[in-house]
Structures are given as structure tokens and as C-alpha cells.
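Hi there,

I know you've been waiting on this one. I reran it after we fixed the sequence typo, so this is the corrected version. Both the input and the resulting structure follow.
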Amino acid sequence: IDQCFEYEDREYIYKLCPFDKTVQKSKSNHQETTIGYWKSWSDDNQKKYSEMKFDNGLSCWNGPQRSTKVIVNCGIENKLVAVSEPNRCEVKKNRCINHSYKNMTRRFVL
């Protein structure tokens, strides 16, 4: 996929570039922070192609390096649908990607 997807909340614009990186951009000062670089699909065989892992983002002040887990679901359009931060500096994104292959349509929520 040679396309990036964005999700906007009150404070930030989150950008996901599948198989490349994830970025968080402040709405107040427009500063961009890399929150992860593509690492792999999930290690869990039950979730193998439904979770993408991005690691080695910018280190948090007095904390770990940022990382992102992307949850992939099937659907009809390419879209980043939600973002949460369940733990400090660990971002979780839900994204929909429409991918046609041999007349089959799959939607992925990252």
C-alpha cells in the first residue's frame, strides 16, 4: 500500500503509513513525533495478519520508546477509524483498508 491515512482528535493528527511508519502531529505547534517504524505482523498466529507492529519511535521523556499496534479489520473503504493510548507512549490504531484481489474485497482496520 503506497498511501498514508490520518485520524484527527482534539489535540493531535495521527498518520499511519502502512509498512513504513506512524506519526503524531500536534495541532497546537504542528510538531511531528514518530511513534513507530514498521516492524512486523503480530507474533501471535491467531492474529498474524490482523495486527501490525510499529516499534522504535521517539523515546518518551523519562520513558520508553514509542510504539504502535495497528488492528486490521475487513471492510469496504480505506480509513483510519480510531486511535487510543492504552499505556504511556503505546498507541493503538484501528484502520480500514479496502484491498481487492481476485474479485475479493477485504477491509482492514489499522
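Quick highlight: The radius of gyration is 14 Å.

Best,
R. S.
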